[in-house]
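Internal ticket #5521
Category: modeling
Description: The requester needs a full-assembly model to guide mutagenesis choices. All entity lines are attached below as received. Residue total reported by intake: 1585.
Assigned to: D.W.
Attached entities:
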Amino acid sequence: MTRLGSIFLRVWPLLTTVLVISSPFASAADPKGDTPKAKLAKLDAEAVEFFEKKIRPVLVTQCYECHSAKAKELQGGLALDTRQATLKGGESGPAVVPKNIEKSLLIKSILYGDEFSQMPPKGKLPANVIADFMAWVKIGAPDPRDGKAPIAKKEKKPLDLAEARKFWAFQPPGEAKPPVVKNETWVRQPLDRFILAALEAKEITPTAAVDKRTFIRRATYDLTGLPPTPQEIDSFLTDRSPKAHATLIDRLLSSPRYGERWGRHWLDVVRYADSNGLDENLAYSYAYRYRDYVIESFNTDKPYDRFVQEQLAGDLLGTPNESEQARNARLIATGFLSLGPKMLACDDGRKMEMDIIDEQVDTTSRAFMGLTMGCARCHDHKFDPLPTKDYYALAGIFKSTKTMENFNVVARWHEHELVSDDVRKKIAEFDTRIKQLDARLKTSTQTAQKTFLNVERAKAGAYLTVASQFVRFDLPATLVANSQKTLAAKMVLGQKPSVAGTILIEAEKYTRGNAKKVGPIIQNGGNGDFPNEVEYDITIPNDGSYRIEFLYTSGAKRPMRLLINEQFVRDDALTGVTGGFANNQVKWFADAIVTLKKGRITLRLEQPGPIPHIDKLAIIPTNEPTTVVLVPHPTPKQSTKKLAADAKLNVELLKQWIGYLRGVAKGPDTIWQAWAKSEANQHTAQAAAFAKRFNEAYQAWTTLQENDPQAKQLADVATERFRAVLFDAKGPFRLPKKPERFYTKPNRDALASLTKEKAALEKQRPVVPRAMGVREGTITDLKVHERGNYLTLGEDASRHFPIVIAGEKQAPLGKTTSGRLELAKWIANPAHPLTARVMANRIWLWHFGEGIVRSPDNFGLLGQRPTNQPLLDWLARKFIETGWSVKDMHRTIMLSAAYRMGTDFDANSDAKDPENLLYWRFRRRRLSAEEVRDSILAMGGALDFKMYGQLMPDKNRAYVTGTGSKQGNYDFPRRSVYLPILRSAVYPMLQAFDFPDPAVLNGKRATTTVAPQALFLMNDGLVLRETRRMAEKMLQDKKLDDAGRIRTTYQRVYGRAATNDEVTRNLDFIARYADALQEEGVADANDRRVRSWQGLCRVLLAANEFIYID
Amino acid sequence: MTSRNDQCNNFAPQPLSRREMLKQSGVGFGSLALAGLLGEENRAAANPLAARLPHFAAKAKRVIFMFMHGGPSQVDTFDYKPLLQRDDGKPYSGKTPRIVSGKTGNLLASPWKFKQYGECGTHVSDLFPHVGALADDLCVVNSIHGSNSRHGAALLELHTGSDTFIRPSMGSWITYGLGSENQNLPGFITICPTLGHGGVNAWSSVFLPAHYQGTPIGTSGTPAEKARIPFIENKQVSRKLQRMELDLLSEVNSDHMARSGPDDALESRISSFELAFRMQREVPGLQDISSESKDTLAMYGIDQPKTKNFGLQCLMARRFCEAGVRFLQVTHSYKWDQHRDLKKRHTSNAMEVDKPMAGLIHDLKQRGLLEDTLVFWGGEFGRTPVSQSGRDGRDHNPHACSMFFAGGGVKTGIRYGATDDYGYYAVQDKMHFNDVHATILHLMGMDHERLTYKYAGRDFRLTNIAGRVVKDIIA
């Protein structure tokens, strides 16, 4: 029965009452012919009363806050304060359909049946109220609240595309002609005219140009993220040619350090990281290939349009004769779409998928187009002309793309295999050879096993003789073995036994024995090689029947022999399994009900192998019948190991024999019945007969196999039974664990050499390099997800591009491709109004600290307007015209007068343009986190310029953070761009210096000044170590005196000469510092000297002059 | 500095000098804050951590969140369900959630007994006798719910209001809204937080300015007594030598300033070293509990091995809170996830935190701090009333969990909201995590709809597009 149905039943009595009292308006509810007024007139007074008493008050108190004309914000377009409004309903449809419970959404909501429309949201209404509402609907929802037509629900305003396209960002960049300016001499590049014209219009004079020393520091940090060396400064200063600046910039652009710095800018935009972050934080071990691809792309000045296309659709850009390297690069590039933050553990796989797609839509549209598409996931963009339909049209493209292998908990992302056909062939060859080796290994192994087992099979009789001593064959099958239905279990631990006369014994208080006492329990006395044995002398008060129960824990079956007065009780006592050996897992098990005589007994437990952890034993008087009779039984008080050695048997096989016999002893197995019936003292004699039968079976089988390798069994039924014991894969001669140790030496050697050969081959087998990335998936169109929820689907949103830019008439993307390639080409098209502008603005921003559009990731209505649109448009067009060359953009910008301006403050300019929107001066900037770290390493002389690769030690998909885990290791002398970036656990040093949260796209880093930065420079191990290195190196230079050392240091750290005052002050500091160290008890003069220089270095590196660039 | 454009329009810091603000706000500033502020009076740049006025009169000035990572079981702690006790072992007849995290069995009665405590008679299980004894000071909410059944996502939902997007954490929002009362200390401190299940995201400022990032003291992998703020220790350079270095640094920087002209950023960087130096002195002092009496240590359970670690965390929380830290979180990390071993592990977990938490609340009360300090307790979700692992475990359950609140202007001695008969779903007076956030902000004098920050084209809030201030639990 449906849930609705069951509730319906419950309210039935009430419903009938209502139906009876309101029967008069069965006709009134008939809509035909009646005007509302007429209907109202017919309203039965009682029905109205029912509404007034039961329904209206609830509507007023529970619903009107959000669903009335007076609501602060009408929710879901639904008003419930008039009859007409209620019947018309809101966005989801009519709230009430008279007489139709199933179709009345109001009822559905108050029933809380649908998890996304539960009303009121605060909590479910009481059952009787819900019943009232259902009754009310059932009788036709009488409602006297006549009102005008439903108040206007917020109608979707149709998107006025023509109007929307008037917005500057959707217009193609205009052909901006560099304007004429008054001060022509200032102009170095056409772009300067745009800057100067804007300044001149406000009567602002650009700040004077910087000297060459400042310029080289600015440009070197700007392009490489590192300080210039004193030699580089010298050669620039002495270069008197008019092209000195251009030469410098060309040198810097050709340095591999350039890609490391500018690649990092891009990595900010694409929220690069080496782990998914968020929940189960797994290593993206191959993400680094994407990072390296970015660095290389910048170094080789890959045209930006190509760069964009590769990242979105590299997998689809193959050309017939491309190099392997080129192919790999474009596959790696698609890591852009894959390496975003992901919730990898979500029970709702569809939500996970839509969240991943959302992240792709958002990052793609903001990174390349400055469009905040993400806003349109749940509703039409509130400010930009981006309807939800456009969002799901784009989302459809990514839905049709394979990013993930699955959406399990924990989900797996897709990876490309970066293998050429040649290598693939090579791998296949290796695999064939490995397969062949495997076959040989298998044959050799089988031979070795067979040889070993056959030798032992010949001794079947001896195994039987020894093993049978451990087994009691006469136990009745009716014995309740190891029952958990115990009497003792009813006791509360620590309290007195509930059955009077119970004898409760602590296991560790044994009379004799060798088991190890550990706290309240006993456990193995050794490693199982000798018998564990314990004996308890117990006084039995009365003749009678007694239960014998034990309290223990055991992670596995560990049977023990239980004897009373040297009489055998059972050989498989204490076989209960409790799931582990933890103290809190103890359980009582009953093993036997025996008849005991009054007086002293000795209870013995023994076992040649490991035993459970035994806490207590209980002997409980009972009226139940005896389950087992005590019989004399000569069990050997020796370990299986010793017995096996004496009889030249394999100890593991002997144990298997014991276990096997215990199993068959109780069963109906025919060959063992005879054995079981014979007295124990006849077993030796019987064993000879059995051995003979085993040998016959073995021989017959060998012969048969020679003649008929396909034979499955012997024809003679009796002999076949014995053969089956010998060869049964689960029988006593099954292969024991780690059988290698029992192989003959030649067999072992042969195997070892094969194994070695295989290992060598595997080592030579080329490793398949992998890269995160995407490829085409199942082509699907999405429907609009109302409120972002995949359970509330709306209209179709076939894959297309945002119509405000791409227009309403778009060629359909087809059923065979996701549309990713088309998307990539559309974005990277020179005609796209945003792509070139957005990147030109980014480049400008990364040079000047602020963009012409100050919200680099948002060119929409809520973003900032360009402060100088002609300049931006000119740059964008220039960018396209020069083949999307980023390096050309650098040259254009850095050779301008604008870039050469000083940072000096000017009160007049500041008053006119306090935010420096028009670029009247250059913006002083603090070093980025990476620059701080790299510069300190460079100063210590330790910076390693090795490029590329992975420093994260974690295996792919391994957990990189978790509760209790420590921060990772970042102690590498490599450039910071190569440090692992773990989402949810970014290296604290980077974090302190405003490294952006790698979970979100970031086109402009914040610059904060917070105390942890100072603490880092004062205290961190890296700073302490590198300044020590600096100091030591300085002091090693014997050609210099201390003043000379200070001068050299200033050249290196600040790129300038120290003043005499500075030299004096620093010398004084060193002297005082050394004195203070002496006072603190530092005896070693050399140590004092190094440490005082170290102190000075720390100060110089912490100073603003080092950390800021003019 | 962030540019003016990035600041939200609705909550722009008042353009007052801090001295003026201090006068206007009247009460509420500790003497430490006063000293800190006056000492920095010459700083030109507006201090992003300066204490700010709330939207309206606040009941709470600071928050301590005791986070139980893993998901404590509501039906075994604060949500007494007699019918669950009655129907132990029977199949669950209600509706199972559409999305579940694992397989479950029949109804499992709580292995613990519930007692009624105090005048109010609130039911608390035997797991929390010390906290139970404070029932008259507590507001127990049984109708908390979230939406995600996995730790990572639920943890983010609890801390940031979203399990879908990356959002600033509640501590960051609160510090962004109100600043800090002590300029020598971070405004938001998280003691021994977990690096798992979202890690830094639980104390991250994400797109809010970095000042509002939580400062971790140690991580869950560190014993509380060894937990330190990053970079705070220097074993090589004595305080005296460091002072000499900073004095020289100040001279070097002054010379540089003289050459470069007025610059807010340069200036504030100079003072950041002085702040760091003071912080270096103040923080270890606050972490040094040697001045605390034996009785106090015993009250927090620091004298017992089982309760020592969490006791230390709680005591540190009180000390930081006294010193003016705005938002403090103490984490009892990833211990509460009892898919199995419910009896043993919940017992052991509760034992580790019960006394320290009660000690903290009691201590705050006796020091008069509880009035304007909001203390709250909870995990990322509750657990199912149906069993797992035989009959000794429960699965994740985001549809019902319990939290308790104390101090900071909440009603005391009440139990608010309710779950269904078995405690599977919150049904009455439901309180989503977004509502918890809205209510906390309200208690701190902030309108959750007005505390916004503009990013990526729109105004963001802690409560996303939801959130209801639950006035019923406000005194």
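Resolution: model delivered.
Comment from assignee: Chain B has twelve helices and 17 strands.
Ticket closed.
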